Amino acid sequence: MTKIVVDPVTRVEGHLRVETEVDSGRVVDARVAGEMFRGFEAVLQGRDVLDAPVITQRICGVCPVSHAVASCRAVEDAQGLTPPPNGRLLRSLVLGANYLQSHLLHFYHLAALDFVDVTAVLAYDGPRADLRALRAWVEQEVSSNRILPAAPFLPRLQGDYPKDAAWNAAALAHYLDALEMRTEAHRMAARFGGKMPHTASLVPGGVTARVEHEDIEAFRAGLVRVRSFVENAYLPDLAALVARFGAYATVGRGVGRFLSYGAFEEADGSAWLPAGVVREGRFEPFDPARIAEQTGAARYARGTPRHPARGETRPEPGRAGAYSWIKAPRYDGEAVEVGPLARMMVARAAGVPDVTRAVDEALGRTGLGEQQLDSVAGRHLARGVETLLLARHMETWLDALEPGQPSVAPYDGDPSGAGYGLTEAPRGALGHWVTVADGRIERYQCLVPSTWNFSPRGDRGDPGPVEAAVLGTPVAADTRGLEVARVVRSFDPCIACAVH
Ligand code: NFE
Predict the structure, then answer these.
(1) pTM above the 0.90 mark?
(2) Catalytic residue among 66, 73, 424, 494, which?
C-alpha cells in the first residue's frame, strides 16, 4: 500500500488536500480536506439584514452572484418581499452571465490543463502573436528561476500529457480566447449587476438597475459572441477531449445520488431548471426539510446533525477524528452529488425536453453511454451541455424584459422573521438560511455546493461524494496523483466557498 497526497490541489479556489491509499495501482481509500477556516456565518451575526447579500458575495470571487441571489431570496422569504418580473429576469441574466464565465474558467483555465501539455508553448512556432508572446513570457519566467516559474502552468503533476503538437497548440489558443470570453461574460453581468465580480445592484426585492433598450442590446451582443465560442470551441473541444481520454468515461463514478434545488427564475417566479433528487436513476421531488449537516469528521463542535435553519458554526480545530474544515451535509442521511451533472440528471429525469435532447445529442456525438455520464468525462460533458443550453435560453429572458417597468419592489420588510433562499450556483445547490430580529441578523447559515461535494466522512463513516469518486481510480506508478487530480477537478472544487 502506498500513500499519495495531493496537497495543495492546484488550479482550484481555496486550500484543498486529498490523501489517498493506493493498492495494486488503484485508489482504495481517500480523504478530502478543506484546509482553512473562514467564519462568514459568524461575521454576519448582529449585522443589518440588508448587509447580507453584500457580505456573502465576498465568500467567493468566482460565484458571487449565486451567493447574492441566495441571500436576497432568504431575506425576501424572512421579510415577505416579492421581486417584480423584471427583477427576477435581471437576476437570471446576471447569474447566467456568471455561469458562462465560471464554466469557461473551469474548463479552459483549470481542468483542461490536466489533459494538455501547456509546456508545449515553449516549442510554439506558429502564426499567433499572442501565443508567441506567451512563449516569450514563459521562457523568461523559467530562465529567471522564479519560485513558482511560469505559474499557473508550472509546477504541475507529471503524467500522460499528449505529445501531439497540434492538440496542444489548439488548446493553448483556446486558453487565450477563453480569457476574452470570460471578460465579455463579466461585462454582461456588470451591465445589470453594476460591477463584477461582486455585484452592487442585487438587493432584497430585486435588482436596482433600470431596464433600458440600450443595455438589453449591449448584453445581447455579448451573449451572441460568447454563445458562438461555446458552440464553435467549447463543445467541439469537449468532444475531442472525451475521444482522446475515453478511459475517463469509466473513472470517477460518484455516489450515484444527485440533488438540484432548481434555478434561474422566469418572469413568473418558476424555475427554468427544476428542483429534484435522482436516486437509483429515478426522479423524486426535493424536500428541504431532509437536509442536515453532520460534523463527526469536521473541525466543529460535535452534536446531532442539524438542519441549516438551526445550524451552528463552532470551530474545534483539534478535535480527535476531525480532519476537515468542511462540514458533512447529507440528504436523508446520505451524501449526494451536486453541480451541472446533477442538474442535467435531475432535469432529464424530470422530463425537461430541451435538456433531454441536448444530453442525448452529446452522448451521441461522443459515443458515451448513459451509464457513463457518472464519470470524469460525464461531468465535463454535462457542464458543457449546460453552458450551451443556458447561452441559448438567456435570450428569452432578454426578450421578456419590459423597459420602463420596475425591477425592484419597495423595501418595507418585516423587521423580524426567519427565511431561506435556495438557488443553483455554477458548482451546484446553494442555500442560505437567516433569522432576523429587529432588522439585525441573529443567525446565518450557508450550505454551499462544494460543501456537498467535498464533504468529509459522515457520522456513520460514509464517504463524501468526491471521496467516493476517487475510489478505484487507476494510478500509474510515476505520476504522483495526476489521475486523482483529474477526478477531483471534474467536480470543479471551490474550497473558499466550501468552508465559507
Ligand atoms: Ni466559490 Fe461557488 C459555485 C458557490 S461553490 S465557487 O459555483 O456557492 O461551492
Answers:
(1) yes
(2) 494
